[in-house]
Amino acid sequence: MTITTTGGYADLRPLMSAMTGDEKHSAAATSTLDVLWVLYDQVLSVDPQRPDDPDRDRFLLSKGHGPMAFYAVLAAKGFLDPAELSGFGEFRSRLGFHPDRVLAPGVEISSGSLGHGLPLGLGMVLGLRAQGRHRPRVVVLVGDAELDEGSNHEAIQVAGRWGLGQLTTVVVDNQSSSTGWPGGIAERFTREGWAAHTVDGRDHDQLRRALTDTRPDRPLAVVAEVEPKEQ
Amino acid sequence: MTTPTMREQFVQTTTDALDTDPRVALVLAEISADRFVAAAQRHPHRVLNVGIREQAMVGVGGGLALTGLRPIVHSITPFVVERPFEQLKLDFGHQGVGAIVVSTGASYDYSESGRTHMAPGDVALIDSLPGWTVHVPGHPAEVDALLRAALPGDDPVYLRLSDRTNAEPLVTGPGWHTVRTGRRGVVLAVGPMLDPVLTATAALDVTVLYTATVRPFDAEGLRAAVRDATADVVLVEPYLRGTSTHEVNDALADVPHRTLALGVRRDQELRAYGTAEEHEAAHGLRPTAIAAAVQDFLERAAR
């Protein structure tokens, strides 16, 4: 099957409405919509015709719950057949409430349990570097509450100290962490040796500029602030 | 020339592999980093010491594998198996990739260090994950053979190093290897339990089978041995007692059989230091205790 459909930003919400059944995570799903769109539309070097290209950029959705926006973007960009979206969460569907890389095309990691994406992304950067592939970027999307997981801080420290410029972390901040970070999230990253920007997570221009401001000698963190999670 | 320990052999074989195979990468969390200093100087991008960060160590291993490398992930047993267990579950098998996870310090090797440095449940934990090969070598030469054989693959492999060893190496191919034949029962010895089992059963008319690869479990080999002896099976494992009992039962599902499982006691936390020999005695794994248990088991069958 060849998927040729490529849509625009306006198609995302209709694509998302094809998926139902995960009401609990709907807020989490839309919080990532604009970041995902800007990444796939303007930043990442990925091609649905060459999903296994070793020199492709890697996007890792670590915050795996609420993946409707992710699936919608993958469908709009031709990785997924939009007709598949209506099966969301069903037994025979490849598209579950948490994405599975073994099942779904264009999905780089299976996620859902928080705190796995950054260490995996760190390993990917190290694996690419060991093979002399210095161009591909690895972009990991986490939630602000996901940063509570200590495994992330292990990876943040190592990536910062080793100056891994191929790694980018996008933190979608909807203020859902119950403890938060003194001085803000970006401050935590810069203390560890990262470059960091805090931007309006709904502003495509700000997102694009921040996400493309990479440095060769240090990883990049982009904190994308969106409206607070509804309680 | 003295025989290297299993851990020394692991360092040698891994260093050789790093020098000869550009796909091999090693991830450490400080443990054993002092033994890989020269290798790290030669291969700074493939010998990765992430500090005392075991979750990151395993996650990095998963990321390396996702780019096509063959990662070896290594630490002391509780730190590489128990602490980052969810990473082992999700960052390898669930991603559809593998790694060679190498532990050192088996059930009671670090007896003087106490409970914090013991993880006799390691094989049982790994056994809860599908698709893993589990190697329990009984001799440093077997470590070399098993590790070399695992390197070209992509699948998840657990290699369990121990200070307890048999006097001589045995073949390390898959499945049960017949060490001795008898008629009254079948005794399965895993890894370093072979020598104690051979001593314990010297005067008993039993078949003794040995393996250094306990997963996948060789059901056919066990069935063949049972056909030639009796379906009285004694399982002697150097980790949590009964870890492979379900495999024995599955292998003999259509055969009336009895199973006696020996191994590290699971009914209590052994809160003691001392020597490995003292721990073996406490777990009933010294030859005299194994002999008594096997004899009692076989005699009860006869009554």
State the major sheet of chain A: 5 strands, parallel
Number of helices of chain B: 12
CATH class of chain A: Alpha Beta
- Topology, number of strands of chain A: 5
* Series of H and E elements of chain B: HEHEHEHHEHEHEEEHEEHEHEHH
Order of SSEs of chain A, N→C? HHHEHHEHEHEHE
- Strands of the widest sheet of chain A, in order across it, are 1-2-3-5-4
- Give the helix proportion of chain A (percent range): 25-40%
Q: What CATH architecture of chain A do you see?
A: 3-Layer(aba) Sandwich
Give average pLDDT of chain A, whole number. Answer: 93
SS-based structural class of chain A?
A: alpha/beta
Indicate the CATH topology of chain A.
Answer: Rossmann fold
Describe the largest sheet of chain B.
7 strands, mixed
List the keywords.
heterodimer; A: 231 residues; alpha/beta; Rossmann fold; five-stranded parallel beta sheet; 8 helices; 5 strands; 13% strand; globular; B: 303 residues; 2 domains; seven-stranded mixed beta sheet; five-stranded mixed beta sheet; 36% helix; 20% strand; PDH/Transketolase (chain B); magnesium ion binding (chain B)
Write the layout of secondary structure elements.
The complex is a heterodimer of chains A (231) and B (303).
Chain A: H1 12-17, H2 26-31, H3 33-43, E1 58-61, H4 68-76, H5 117-130, E2 138-143, H6 150-161, E3 167-173, H7 185-191, E4 195-200, H8 204-211, E5 220-225
Parallel strand pairs in A: 1-2, 2-3, 3-5, 4-5
Helix pairs in contact in A: 3-4, 3-8, 5-6
Chain B: H1 6-20, E1 24-28, H2 37-42, E2 47-49, H3 54-66, E3 70-76, H4 77-82, H5 85-91, E4 100-104, H6 122-126, E5 133-135, H7 140-150, E6 157-160, E7 177-180, E8 186-190, H8 194-200, E9 207-211, E10 213-215, H9 219-228, E11 232-240, H10 245-251, E12 258-264, H11 276-282, H12 287-302
Parallel strand pairs in B: 1-2, 1-3, 3-4, 4-6, 5-6, 8-9, 8-11, 11-12
Antiparallel strand pairs in B: 5-10, 7-9
GO molecular function (chain B): magnesium ion binding; transketolase activity
Organism (chain B): Saccharopolyspora hordei
Domain Transketolase-like pyrimidine-binding (chain B): 4-167
